[in-house]
Design goal:
The complex is a heterodimer of chains A (320) and B (242). In chain A, 76% of the residues lie in helices and 1% in strands. Chain A is mostly helical and 320 residues long. Chain A has a domain of 210 residues. Chain A has a two-stranded antiparallel ribbon with strand order 1-2. With 242 residues, chain B is α/β, with parallel strands linked by helices. Chain B has a single domain, classed as 3-Layer(aba) Sandwich (Rossmann fold). In chain B, the strands form two sheets. Chain B has a six-stranded mixed β-sheet, sandwiched between helices. Chain B has a four-stranded antiparallel β-sheet with strand order 2-1-4-5, with helices on one face. The chains are: A mainly alpha (320), B alpha/beta (242).
Chain lengths: 320, 242
């Protein structure tokens, strides 16, 4: 236990020192690792801990991104104020999807498919209603000052992503030691038994999806502030959903560090394959190479390590 | 303590439970027996809120609980176990039992301590760190019992906790059930293992094709002509007596 705490402290120190030692390009990659780990964790809380697998988590991400962007562009809000509003909107969408699907008794793959459908509906809506400016997308005015949630130096974006990631880790850690978390795991393992033991399964599932939605929406706002542009494809595209699910599954769904390790691994593959493609002439036309490696990796994980990379650590510990 | 009045439950055209009534008084161990498919588990599930009855009422400690959700009934002090054991497979025995204990405390340490105490009561102290999935059949049955007990019930509904156990394990679990009753918990149990029912229960109800056909002490039930025929077939009572 103490060794784990020491490892966490060392890891955090390394993460804090990292951007001071590497070129900007690598700082941004580090930022993406933590950002993806953060939105992956938002998926993991509902999909990993509570077992409510979603294929459409991007619906929360997009809701967050659009809410804060519309509040700024159309209503002149400060982004720091728009951020909590975006989280509230993401939580509200999570609450709504949960109430509708769990009232209807949807479980497992049916729930996963309905979330995918919701994400698609939101994408099409964002494409067609006037207040999102449709397919044109929305542009945030560049004015890089901290008060505008925009930073000239990528190091601050990195630290903000790191902070989000740490907060999400703390939330996951809390789940492993609280009654709420224990109830979520019970629901994941066996809903009927959970119900018999006095757990209000419906209420707990609604709670966790609301929390997960609010977290993911926070990531959406962060993304919009970093790139200053969103459109329906970016904000509600299925690839973000897959990314969140993938980092959790690769790292280990239902574990604290799963999404972080998954994000680290996938981003590493991404960079290595990009580099390989640039130095090995034969691979130049195999694009994108990273997707092929992702695919192989996913197959290997599902076949050989269904509990993700985290289970490697656990297995080692059991032998020790 | 528990009053079940004229409860009926149908699935499509099949009347699984047909105007069944039963009573359990505080401190009793009451048995519910009947041939396969008699509707025992359906009656249990209906009492515990997993099915909504088509007709009839269920009253627990003077309060009507007909049609309440299972988690509310559990919170009221009545909890059921499953005939087909439903462990939380991926987590440890300790964590399994803690889920039950969390019903009345949000404190992790308190829940863990309670889980250990309950594990002691059902003889699982040495298995606390095993995963639910790694337990034997007997272990799973005990876990069902332990988890239910950890919720702190006043009435425990046990659905065939002895099915699939060998004679030694049955003797052990009979002892465990006696201890549970001695600790102040009333017990209603469905059982197939007749010997266990007769040694445990003070009173027995017999369900056949959804209907209550007899009620009485185990000895009286064993002599009841209708009961013998329900189990062994028409005319069996006459043959036995001859």
């Amino acid at each position: 236990m103490n060794r784990a705490a020491l490892l966490c402290a060392l890891g955090l120190l390394a993460a804090l020192a990292y951007p001071l030692l590497v070129p900007n390009y690598l700082v941004t990659i580090g930022m993406l690792v933590f950002f993806t780990a953060f939105i992956g964790q938002s998926w993991n809380i509902a999909g990993g801990f509570a077992g409510q697998t979603s294929f459409g988590h991007v619906v929360f991400f997009g809701t967050g991104a659009y809410t804060s962007t519309i509040l700024q562009v159309t209503w002149g809000w400060n982004p720091w104020l728009a951020w909590p509003a975006a989280m509230a909107a993401g939580g509200a969408v999570g609450w709504m999807i949960a109430v509708l699907s769990f009232r209807a008794g949807l479980r497992g793959s049916y729930f996963a498919l309905i979330t995918l459908a919701f994400a698609e509906v939101f994408r099409i809506l964002a494409n067609s209603v006037p207040f999102t400016k449709g397919g044109l997308g929305m542009l945030l005015k560049s004015d890089p000052r901290p008060i505008n949630f925009q930073f000239k130096d990528p190091i601050w974006v990195y630290y903000l992503a790191l902070l989000l990631c740490v907060v999400s880790l703390l939330i996951a850690w809390h789940l492993t030691r609280s009654r709420f978390g224990a109830r979520l795991v019970a629901i994941r393992e066996n809903e009927d038994a959970a119900r018999a033991l006095g757990i209000d399964v419906f209420a707990e599932k609604v709670k966790v999806l609301t929390l997960s939605g609010a977290m993911c929406a926070a990531g959406g706002t962060f993304y919009a502030q970093k790139y200053l542009y969103i459109d329906p494809g970016i904000a509600f595209g299925v690839d973000k959903s897959v990314e969140m699910l993938l980092v959790s599954m690769v790292g280990g769904a239902g574990t604290i560090f799963g999404p972080l390790i998954g994000s680290f691994t996938l981003m590493g593959i991404n960079e290595v394959t990009r580099w390989l493609a640039s130095v090995v002439p034969a691979l130049k036309n195999v694009q994108p190479l990273s997707l092929i490696v992702y695919g192989i990796m996913l197959i290997l994980i599902v076949a050989r390590l269904p509990d993700g990379l985290m289970s490697l650590f656990r297995r080692k510990r059991r032998h020790a | 303590m528990l009053e079940v009045r004229e409860v009926s439950k149908s699935f499509g055209g099949l009347k699984a439970v047909d105007r069944a009534s039963l009573d359990v008084a505080p401190g009793e161990i009451v048995g519910l027996i009947g041939p396969n498919g008699a509707g025992k588990t359906t009656l249990f599930a209906t009492i515990a809120g997993f099915h909504r009855p088509d007709a009839g009422t269920v009253t627990f400690e003077g309060k009507p609980i007909t049609g309440l959700a299972p988690h509310r009934i559990c919170a009221a002090g009545m909890v059921r176990t499953f005939q087909i054991t439903q462990p939380f497979a991926g987590i440890s025995v300790r964590e399994n039992i803690m889920v039950g204990a969390y019903l009345h405390t949000a404190d992790r340490h308190l829940a863990a301590r309670e889980a250990e105490a309950v594990a002691g009561l059902v003889g699982m102290k040495d298995q606390l760190d095993q995963r639910g999935a790694d337990l034997t059949v007997a272990g799973r049955k005990r876990l069902e019992l332990a988890r239910a007990l950890a919720t702190g019930p006043r009435l425990l509904l046990l659905d065939e906790v002895m099915a699939g156990l060998n004679p030694t394990e049955i003797v052990e679990i009979v002892g465990v059930i006696r201890n549970i009753r001695a600790s102040g918990v009333t017990i209603l149990l469905i059982e197939h293992v007749m010997q266990a029912v007769t040694s445990l229960a003070e009173r027995v109800y017999v369900l056949n094709q959804g209907r209550m056909i007899a009620e009485g002490t185990p000895a009286a039930i064993a002599d009841n002509e209708e009961v013998i025929e329900a189990y062994l077939g028409r005319g069996a009572a006459k043959v036995l007596r001859a």
